[in-house]
Amino acid sequence: MFKVKYYFDESTLTFKRVRLVKKQKIKRIISFLFITGITAIFINILLSNYYTTPKLSKLTNNRYELITKYDLLQDKLSDVNTALKEIQHRDDYLYRTIFELEPVSSSIRLAGFGGSNRYIELEDFENSGIMIETSKQIDAITNQLVVQSKSFDVVIEYAKNKELMLACIPAIQPVAIKDFDRISDYFGQRSDPFNNQPTMHYGMDFTGPEGSEVFVTGDGVVVEAGHSLFGYGNRITIDHGFGYKTVYAHLQEIDVVPGQKIKRGEVIGKLGNTGRSTGNHLHYEVRMYDKPIDPINYYFNDITADEYDQMILALSKRRIPMD
Ligand SMILES: [Zn+2]
Questions:
Q1: Tally of domains in the chain
Q2: What spacing in Å lies between the alpha carbon of 323 and ligand 1's midpoint?
Q3: From ligand 1's centre to the CA of 205, what distance in Å?
Q4: Share of the chain above pLDDT 90, in %
Q5: What is residue 203's DSSP assignment?
């Protein structure tokens, strides 16, 4: 390990080997180990900063994969949140309205979890931000689901006592799905088909062959059945009680008379093109206390959640106003 050293002995004129005492030997060994250690640490730092080992490369890939997974999770949570908002909206403005219950206040719906920092154990990581944010989103959705579930419990309790009311509320589509080609126009602002002026459309239009059967959407009494002077053509209005009325316009034929009591699903007339109309279609309105409301939430007896979503999606597509 160490070089053998010699010195010149002038008295004997010979080279003699240098003998180190034990203490000096230990000192030299320690110095050697110290320098070797420092050099190893230095090389290690150099390598880890400028060169990637397979192990390090794998760890880096795992880290990127984890971040990508968190991003995907956040996208999915955003979809869940959107679906939840739709359920909350239907709960507040349809189910609870039917039973004359106040909507659940937003302070209750959005109340957070109490207590001190719930996410303390997620702090001090390189990706703490995204981990804490994701956990917060999951907690918020969980909390809102608990509130929603309780609200449904209340609604179910009311529903048990309100069978009559449920029979009267408009709850089906007024034209059989096999008969109508499409929903050509929805409730809301759009161009008038006759003069292209921005106009409010107060109902939904179902296009289909002339003569297709038109059904009453809830139990009620016929309050009007005849030709309208206001562009509706042959029109039927049904009073369902509980503040609800429905209107069926541009009919080819009217099969009921004022005062007649009818049950949900009975045929009341035939689809047509009478009055201010550009083609065969049924203009259908739902009114609450004589104020037109969006009928889109009143088909809950015969459409699935998917079909409802498709209808909502169609709202953003091209509309064909027929009035
Ligand atoms: Zn219309």
A1: 3
A2: 4
A3: 5
A4: 45
A5: S
Residue range 57-75, pLDDT digits in tens: 888 888 888 889 888 998 9
* Nearest CA-CA partner of 199 in 287, 312, 313, 276: 276
* Side-chain half-sphere CA neighbours of 134 within 13 A: 17
Q: Are 154 and 100 in contact (CB under 8 A)?
A: no
Tokens of 139: 């907690």
Single-letter amino acid, residue 84 = L
In a domain, 304, yes or no: yes
Would you say 163 and 218 are in contact if contact means Cβ atoms under 8 Å apart?
A: no
Q: How far is the CA of 284 from the centre of ligand 1 (A)?
A: 7
Distance separating alpha carbons of residues 58 and 66, to the nearest angstrom: 12
Q: ∠ CA 208-211-215 to the nearest 5 degrees?
A: 80
Report pLDDT for 257. Answer: 98
**Among 132, 161, 190, where does a domain finish?**
161
Tell me what the pLDDT averaged over the chain comes to: 88
Gap between the Cα atoms of 251 and 247, Å rounded: 11
How far does the centroid of ligand 1 lie from the alpha carbon of residue 24, in Å? 106
One domain, residues 23 and 72: no
Which of 133 and 115 is assigned the larger pLDDT? 133
pLDDT at 1 > cutoff 60: no
